[in-house]
Design a protein that fits this description.
The structure holds 2 protein chains of 2 kinds.
Chain A lengths: L8 H11 L3 H8 L6 E3 L13 H13 L3 E12 L2 E6 L11 E12 L2 E15 L1 H4 L3
Parallel strand pairs in A: 1-3
Antiparallel strand pairs in A: 2-3, 2-5, 4-5
Chain B lengths: L3 E8 L4 E9 L7 E5 L30 E6 L6 E6 L8 H7 L3 E4 L10 H17 L5 E6 L1 H12 L7 E7 L7 H4 L1 H17 L4 H11 L12 H8 L7 E7 L7 E6 L13 E9 L1 H9 L28 E5 L10 H11 L10 E7 L3 E3 L3 E10 L14 E6 L10 E3 L11 E9 L5 E11 L3 E3 L6 E6 L2 H28 L6 H27 L8
Parallel strand pairs in B: 3-6, 3-7, 7-8, 8-9, 9-12, 14-21
Antiparallel strand pairs in B: 1-2, 2-6, 4-11, 5-10, 10-11, 13-15, 15-18, 16-17, 16-19, 19-20, 19-21
The chains are: A alpha+beta, B alpha/beta.
């Protein structure tokens, strides 16, 4: 992504890594807050999770655009109306900045019955095949 | 040095108001600068314009970079806000002039948005008090906007101040009025529409707010082009002795406007609580410029290159007796712009100190002895050793006054004016010849005089301390007493006759008044009869 006002995608990736919180480690110490749920990818593979179709579409589109790379979905979180309701991760640290890819989708529903804001985020690790590195 | 506190008073005919003002310290050789704020202004206008009128936008500022708005639970998209330029630190006239060594007086005008009448009374009281408290000091009026009209109206009512108020410097004052005032009805119709427009494109919010505040004040009638007030003020100008300097502005640029848009990263969730880190970036809002360009259709005052947002440069001029300087500033910038300050102080710095009055005693003819109660002619000659012309007429009103004892009426009066029409140039002498009446009681009495100017300024050398022996010449004394006794008797007869004429019930109060007059005269008669008796005089009559 192009640099805008001094903020580039590289800056954003580095900020993402800098701001990252490992909820698995944190909540093991502090306990899982009420209303939140913590799962580990070994028991609940992220690819099998029910998530917004648009988010799955984004992952698929990226995969299609990078045929020589393979993605591993490692972390997932879901915010519903400003509350962190689900985290799927283990102690695995974030991928390094060359391997980090994130996908997210925010959808809203507004009607007389109520309003919903749903944000889901997937953190993936990109494994580049040796032949594709030259094209990376 | 501490500020000097001065107490002055003024009356609007209904009430007398006492106020305190402060003269901030400075170089005594320089003039005192009286600072006058404009319409709807406050004391901060000339002291700290970052507080009021607070239009100190820094439209020379470089557009700032991304701004961190913190963490949030929802994505940040589109606009965060629309904002004007940031404020910049500015220095008002009072601290600036203080740093340049000028003594300044700054005060809050009464009725700042009302008629000029009471502010004129107030400024008059202040100026006369300054004149009395700071002899031989020039006073300069430095006025912003309507303050210039206030200064001119005050001098119109008090032309005698011209020997002390020597310069009037006005900054963007509507001397020839403002069409915004004339078109108050139009403005009151247009400005809400503009205000509505600015809700969608706030590029001109500060300007429209300022305009609305100005045209909705009662003072706009006086500031209308062709108003009777402006005509009256100008009729007596130029007032001799006053130098007029006017400044006018031609910029309507008060501030630029920026939209602060969310950076795309504000919509990217992070593995964090909260997940969204908002960052905004400023971008100039082009619509503000478009609106400002359209405003010239409303009034010349808000036409770039013609006005300063409230007053046109042309209407901030006085007739050719005044020096006019045009500056590319808006109405508010005149309160702090450094280049304007340098222009003004370039003028103030060359004002010479007021030439001082001075006098030396030359000679006198004064009797060493006088008979009690008698008149005697004396003469005192003083030399003008100062730098000013002595004249008997206001405003200088040079005269000789009794110094010792002060306010002594025993010599028959405490002031001796210069003969009418006489003027004494520096180096020349003036001889005051006048009659003094000796006290009625024998003794040795002091006799010393000194020159005075204006209301109460003594100046120069006093006459040497002298004393006059008042003695009794029995024959002359008795004659004097007898004349006085006869006069009092005649007065008593007249008073009693007059009182007897008012015998009706409804004349009761008048009779009572005359009875009191009779009692006073009887007491005076008894005193002189006693003096005559003590002097061994044979009193004539009964």
């Amino acid at each position: 992504m192009a640099t805008l006002h001094g903020l580039s995608s590289i800056d954003a990736v580095r900020q993402f890594r800098k701001n990252y919180i490992n909820f698995h480690a944190l909540w093991r110490l502090s306990g899982v807050p009420e209303g939140s749920e913590l799962k580990i990818p070994a028991d609940h593979p992220i690819g099998a999770l029910e998530m917004q179709p648009a988010l799955k579409d984004s992952v698929a589109a990226y995969q299609q655009a990078h045929p020589h790379s393979r993605l591993t979905l490692e972390k997932f979180l879901r915010y519903h109306n400003g509350r962190l309701v689900l985290v799927v991760e283990d102690e695995t640290p974030l991928p390094d900045e060359r391997q980090l890819v994130t996908f997210s989708h925010t959808s809203t529903i507004l009607s007389l019955e109520g309003a919903e804001v749903l944000t889901e985020l997937v953190v993936a690790r990109r494994h580049d095949a040796p032949a594709s590195r030259n094209n990376a | 040095m501490e500020p000097k506190e001065i107490t002055f008073h003024w009356s609007d005919g209904l009430k007398t108001t006492y106020e305190t003002a402060y003269v901030l310290p400075g170089d005594a050789a320089k003039p005192i600068i009286v600072l006058l704020h404009g319409n709807n202004g406050t004391i901060d206008d000339m002291r700290d314009p970052a507080v009021h009128p607070k239009c100190n936008y820094d439209y020379g500022a470089i557009v700032s970079g991304p701004v961190d708005r913190g963490w949030h639970f929802y994505p940040g998209i589109w606009y965060w806000s629309v904002e004007p330029d940031p404020y910049k630190p500015v220095t008002g006239w009072q601290p600036f002039l203080g740093a340049r060594g000028y003594r300044t007086v700054n005060y809050a005008q009464v009725d700042p948005a009302g008629s000029l009448i009471r502010p004129v009374y107030q400024l008059t009281g202040l100026l006369y008090q300054l004149r009395d408290d700071f002899p031989w000091t020039r006073i300069v009026l430095l006025a912003h906007s309507r303050g210039g009209l206030l200064a001119r109206a005050t001098l119109w009512f008090n032309p005698d101040l011209a020997n002390r108020v020597t310069h009037l410097v006005t900054l963007h004052s509507p001397h020839a009025g403002s069409s915004l005032a004339n078109t108050a009805v139009v403005a009151s119709a247009v400005l809400p529409t503009l205000a509505q427009l600015t809700a969608a494109a706030p590029g001109v919010v500060p300007l429209v707010d300022m305009l609305q505040a100005e045209v909705s004040s009662p003072s706009y009638v006086e500031m209308s082009i062709g108003s009777q007030t402006l005509t009256d003020i100008g009729a007596s100008e130029p007032i001799p002795g006053i130098t007029y300097i006017t400044f006018g502005g031609t910029s309507v640029l008060y501030t630029r406007m920026y939209q602060h848009a969310f950076h795309w990263s504000s919509a990217l969730p992070q593995f964090h609580i909260p997940p969204f880190h908002w960052i905004t970036v400023p971008q100039p809002l082009p619509l503000a410029g478009v609106l400002l360009d359209a405003l010239p259709n409303v009034a010349p005052e808000i036409t770039e290159g013609v006005g300063d947002g409230l007053v046109t440069d042309a209407n901030s001029r006085l007739p050719p007796f005044a020096l006019h300087i045009t500056v590319g500033l808006n109405h508010a910038e005149a309160l702090w712009d450094p280049s304007l300050k340098n222009l003004v102080t370039g003028i103030l710095d060359v004002i010479p100190p007021l030439p001082a009055e001075d006098a030396a005693y030359v000679t006198s003819t004064v009797p060493k002895q006088m008979v009690a109660g008698q008149l005697s002619t004396v003469s005192i000659t003083m030399k003008n050793t100062g730098a000013t012309l002595w004249t008997p007429a206001p405003p200088l009103r040079v005269r000789l006054v009794s110094r010792v004892p002060a306010n002594q009426l025993g010599w028959g009066g405490r002031e001796v004016p210069l003969p009418a029409g006489m003027s004494v140039v520096p180096g020349d002498q003036a001889t005051f010849t006048f009659d003094v009446r000796a006290p009625f009681t024998p003794g040795s009495y002091p006799f010393q005089w000194q020159m005075m100017q204006e209301t109460s300024y003594l100046f120069g050398e006093s006459t040497p301390p002298m004393s006059i022996d008042v003695v009794v010449n029995r024959e002359e004394q008795c004659t004097t007493y007898q004349q006085r006794i006869d006069a009092l008797r005649a007065k008593l007869t007249d008073l009693r006759t007059e009182r007897d004429q008012f015998d009706r019930e409804e004349d009761h109060q008048l009779r009572q008044y005359l009875s009191m007059q009779i009692m006073d005269a009887e007491r005076e008669l008894a005193r002189f009869r006693q003096l005559a008796f003590l002097a061994g005089c044979a009193e004539g009559g009964g």
